[in-house]
Structure formats: C-alpha cells, structure tokens
Amino acid sequence: MESTAHKSADQSEADAAMDCYAREGDPKAFSRLIDLLQPRLLGYVRRQLHGDPAAEDLVQVCFLKIHQYRGRFSPGAAVLPYAFAIARRLLIDKIRSDRRQRGRESALVTQQPLYGVGPEEALAQRRALARLESALREIPPHHREAFELTTLDGLSLEDAAAITDTTITTLKMRKHYARAALRERLGAELEELLR
Amino acid sequence: MTDLKERILAAAAAAPSPTRAGASRRSVLWIAGSAASMAAGYWAFALTFFGWQHIPRSLLLMAGTSIGAAVVAGSATAIALGRGGTMLGRSRRWLIATTVLAPLLLLGWKLGWSALFGNLDESPHLGYRCLVMSVSMGAIPVLLLAMTRKGEDPRHPGLLGAAIGVAVGACAWVLVDLWCPVAGIWHLLRGHVLPILVLGIVGAALGSTMLGVRPRR
C-alpha cells in the first residue's frame, strides 16, 4: 500500500512538473520530470531491448518528443502513460527496423550487472530472470505486454489499458492469462521471482 | 544516468519548442485556415463555377437537414480533434465509431427528414458535381487540421487521420447540402457519401505519414 501511495505521489509530481513545463517552459520542471520518469522508462526499454545499448538513445528520443510537443500537453492530463506510449511506439519501430535490417534473433537473457549481491547469488538471480524471460517469450505478445506493464513496470491498470488502447477488463483478462501461463511454466518460483 | 539526463537537457535546449500559449495560437491558425479554405472552396464552386441552384425548397426541409447534418459534423469534428482529456487521444473504439457512424447518420438523417416532405426523387444529375465540390472543399482542410496533431499520436495515427478526414467530409456535407436539393439515395451515395469516404482515405494516408510519433522529425 505504501509503495502504491508513493508511486501516486511521484506521478502527481510528474504531472505537475509537466504542466509547469508546458505552461511556462521552465527547464527546472523538465529536469524534475526527467528525474521522476527516467528510471521507469529506462527500465521498461532496457527490458524490451534485452540490454541493448540503444535503450538510452531511445529514452532520450522519448523525452525529446515530450519536449517538442510540450505546448500541446493538456492541463490535467497524465504524463506517465503518454511517456510510456511514446516509448512503446519507438520500441515497436526500432524492433521492426532491426528485424528488417538484420533479421536478428534477440538474445534471451539480459546482461545487466546485478549489484549488491555475491557472485553465486547474482548467477542464481540471472538464471532465474532468464527462466522468467524465456517463459514470457512463450506466451502471446498481448498477454505478455499486459503482464509486463502492470506487474514488472508497476503501472496502474488504467494507465496500462490506455497505453495499449484496450479496456481495463480486457487488460485484466490478459494479465490473468499471462500469470496462469507463467505459473504453469515456472510453478511456485514465479511468486518468488516477482517478490 | 546523470549523463543521459544532461544529454536530454542539452538536446532540448538546442531545439526550442513552443509553450502551451504558442501551440494554442498555432492550432487556432490551422483551424481558422481550414475553415477559410473550405469557405473559399464553397464560394468558388457553389457560387461561381457551378452556380447557385435556383430550385425552390421548403425552408423547414432545408433547415432540418442542415441543422441535423451540422450536429453530426460538429460532433465528429469535436471527437476527431479533441483528446478526451488525456494526452493519448481518443481510443480506437471512439475513432472507429466516428469514422463509420458519421456518414451513416448523415445519410439516415437526410433520407429520413426528406421523406417527411416526400422529397426522395432521384435527379438526372448523378452527383458528380457534388462529389467534385466536396472533395475539392475538403482536401486542404484535412491537411491543415492534421497539422494540429502532427507527430504526436503514439497509438493509432492512421485511424486518427481517417477520423479527421471523415469529420472534414461531414462539414463539407453540410455546405453542399445547402446547395444541392436532391435527396435520391443513389445521388446521395455517389455525390455526398463517397466524398466522405475519399476524404477519410486521404486522412488515413496523411495520418499514417504525418501524425505518428517518429524518431526523427
């Protein structure tokens, strides 16, 4: 509960910063917005690109789009779903373009270093994450996306439904199917991984 | 992380963008330009090139069809251009409903209201003048209205473009309806509904190329 309340406060602060930036063009407001959104956006993009170094470039483009169209930001609108929707669109374009250019198969395992744990624990965590990611790849993309946005990226059902342009009921069903499919593949380990 | 933030701030500082007041002024200019362009097209075709239709019509018939069509066109325009209070814009369902229902409602209203006055006769005019007039009046406004949402739709730019095209076609319907007295079904389909579909397709094409979020623009 505390975590949810904290997230909501962050989101409200991000909305206020964006509104200020749209209205007055104050660079400090944009700087605050970056502080608030960048970790979540970078985490989302990095996971989708499996540690591809282009993730930072993509997040940069995402913020520049927000900057470019700041004047059209509606008063009272939420910036987080907008930022995620832009990142999602840029990701789709990048993945399509990569497939066209290289026809490459993306790596299954993220190669991000795990800080604050010993080598054995890090290896175990990496293997567990690899199993989760491998299981995620086996489920339908819509189900996977619903699960990732709500469970891994911590977005609300409303925001995730808006980003994927679907209803909350449909999103809940997709998330439920994804969870059931993952539980079938990973068993009790799933809850441990998500903790 | 800090390095990324510095890069973003430096890039933003190097590419100034308008604040809300500036962006609103631009949008007003695009909308005014599209209205002026449509009015100019109407003047050129209905009053000059084709000439005014001096066929007597009941004032109540004319007012009823025009007011009903204006309500549909206004609603379609508000839905297509508005964002519904979020930065993500209207949902797919709203845009599809607008694109599909607007022409059907216009046609249904015109036929229904005209039927009350026993005015459903076909005309020797097949409707090509109405078709040319509507498409000519609507082409530039579709482009100008698309400029108000250029590059900012991350979800379904093609569908948004189609809805804008249909909304412009509905506005053209209102004006052409004042000029054209015919309410025969085949004339209406060829001369009044077909241009809405054409403008919807033009809007969808423009939307796919102009309205979506792209890395370089």
Structure characterization notes:
The complex is a heterodimer of chains A (195) and B (217). Chain A is built from nine helices and no strands. With 195 residues, chain A is an all-alpha fold. The longest helix of chain A is centred in the middle third of the chain and has 24 residues, at 79-102. Chain B has helices at 2-14, 20-49, 59-81, 92-116, 128-147, 157-179, 185-210. The longest helix of chain B has 30 residues, at 20-49. Chain B is elongated. Chain B starts with a helix and ends in a 7-residue tail after the last helix. In chain B, 41% of the residues are buried. The mean pLDDT of chain B is 90. The interface between A and B is large, with 44 and 36 residues.
Order of helices and strands of chain B: HHHHHHH
Distance between the termini of chain A: 15 Å
In terms of per-residue confidence, which ranges of chain B show pLDDT below 50 for 5 or more consecutive residues?
A: none
Structural class by secondary-structure content of chain B: mainly alpha
